[in-house]
Amino acid sequence: MPLPPLVEPADELTIDEVRRYSRHLIIPDVGMVGQKRLKNAKVLVVGAGGLGSPALLYLAAAGVGTLGVVDFDTVDESNLQRQVIHGQSDIGKPKAVSAKESVAEVNPYVEVVLHEERLDEDNVLRIFEPYDLILDGTDNFATRYLVNDAAVLLGKPYVWGSIYRFEGQVSVFWAEHGPQYRDLYPEPPPPGMVPSCAEGGVLGVLCASIGSIMVTEAIKLITGIGEPLLGRLMVYDALEMSYRTLKLRKDPAGEPITGLLGDYEAFCGAVSEEASEAVKGSTISVTQLEQWIKERENGERDFVIVDVREPNEYEINKIPTAVLIPKGEFLNGSALEKLPQDKQVVLHCKTGVRSAETLAILKGAGFADAVHVGGGVAAWVNQIDPSQPAY
Amino acid sequence: MSVSVRIPTILRTYTDGAAEVTADPGDGATLADLLETLDQSYPGLKGRVLDDSGNLRRFVNVYVGDEDVRFAEGLATPTPAGASVSVIPAVAGGC
C-alpha cells in the first residue's frame, strides 16, 4: 500500500543544490519535487554506531535537510571495523561530534543537530518531537521498546533495523498505518537469552547492507514513492545471500500504548532475577582473583577458573589457568560433568553478565560455593594485565 | 516429503551451525508436532521457541510459509509436507 509523502516540499533548490542532486532530479519518481521534500525533511538517527554510520552518510548525501543524531558514546578503536562514519583520528571523540564532522564533509547543505544524551523516558518525547521520521539503530532491547512506544505516542513512523553476525532484520513501523514493534515482538527476551553484537560479533559490512535498506525506506517514506516496508519484515542472510520478506500484522490481542513505561531498563532487564539472586555474596573482583591465584600458587587455596565465553573470544584474551566451557554447555547440561566436584568453581566471561547467568545454573545444580568475577576478563585486562588486547 | 525449517543465527548452536534443517513430523502434522520431532534431533531447540507452559514465546515468531502462526492457528497450524517454516527471534543489535 503506497503512502502519501511524509514531508511537504521546500520552496526551492539553489543552483548549487540542483547541480549536486542532478542524478536524483533526473529520476522521474524523485524529480525536483522529491528532492525538495528531502531538503525539507527532518530525520533523527538514534545511535551513530554500526547502523547509524552508513545511514547518516547516505541520508546526508541524499540531501535530507536536517539530521538529528542521538549518541552519548565516544569512538573506540573496536568501532572502526564497521562504523564507517568515524575514522582513526576520531578515537576518543564523542560519536555525535565525529558524525557531524563527517556529514559536513559529505554534504555541507545538511544541518546536523546533536543530542549527546542517553535516550530515556524523560527526554525521548522532547527529542523526537521536531522530527518527521526516526531511524532506530540502537543496540539494546530497552531502547528499542522506548523508541517504539515514543514513536507510537507521537504518531511518527520509524525505520527499524537490527543485526547479528551475518544476519539482519529491517522493517518500517507506523502504528497509524500498520504494525508497530510490539506487534512483531510483544515482549523482550529474558536477559541473557539473546546475545548482543558486542558479545556475538557482527560482520562489519552487514551494517551497510542493513543501513542502506533503512535509508532506502526513509527516502521512500519522505518522498512518498514505492511500496514501503510497512507491514513486512525483511530478513537478510549474508552467508546465503538471501533476502526474504515476511508479512507483519497488527496484533489484535496487543495492548494499546497509552504512555511510556516508567523504567525500560527494568522492563528488559540487564540480568535475570535468578542471576541477580545468585551473584549476591558470590561475586569477586579481579584484584581478589589475582590474590586468590597467588594463594593457590602457595597451596593456601584451591579452585578452578572457568571461562564461559565462546572459543573465538578465548583466543583474544584470557585469565591465566582458565579453562573454556562456553555458557551453552551449561544450558544443555553437558558442562556439569566436566567440572571438578571437589574444588570451588570461579566463573568469568567478558563483562560479568553471562557468568552471572551461568552462576545461577551452577548454584541450582548444587555448586553452592561457586562464585563469578565481576567485570570479567575486560576488567582483568583493564586493571591487572593491560598487555592483553581488549575487545 | 519433509518440512524444511530455517534456523536463525542465534539458535544455530542447537543445530551444529546448520542454517536449515529438515524434519518429517508425518501426515497431518501441526507446528506442535514439528517442534517435538525437531527436539528429538536437536535437543533444547523446542525450549527456545516455547515457554515452560508450552506456549509460543512472545519474543520469537514462527512463520509457516510467509504467514506468522500467531495469526493462523498458533501451534495447531498445519505443517504439511513441503512446507517451509521460519523461526524469527527478536534481535536488538545495531552496534
Automatic annotation (TrEMBL), chain A:
Residues 299-389 form the Rhodanese domain. SMART domains: RHOD (SM00450). GO terms for molecular function: nucleotidyltransferase activity. InterPro entries: Rhodanese-like_dom, Rhodanese-like_dom_sf, ThiF/MoeB/HesA, ThiF_NAD_FAD-bd, Ubiquitin-activating_enz. Keywords: Nucleotidyltransferase, Transferase. CDD domains: RHOD (cd00158), ThiF_MoeB_HesA_family (cd00757). The keyword Protein biosynthesis does not apply. Pfam families: Rhodanese, ThiF. This is Adenylyltransferase/sulfurtransferase MoeZ.
UniProtKB/TrEMBL annotation, chain B:
Transmembrane segments: none annotated. InterPro entries: Beta-grasp_dom_sf (IPR012675), Mopterin_synth/thiamin_S_b (IPR016155), SAMP1_3 (IPR054834), Sulfur_Carrier/Prot_Modifier (IPR052045), ThiS/MoaD-like (IPR003749). It comes from the Bacteria. This is MoaD/ThiS family protein. PANTHER family: SULFUR CARRIER PROTEIN CYSO, SULFUR CARRIER PROTEIN SLR0821-RELATED. SUPFAM superfamilies: MoaD/ThiS (SSF54285).
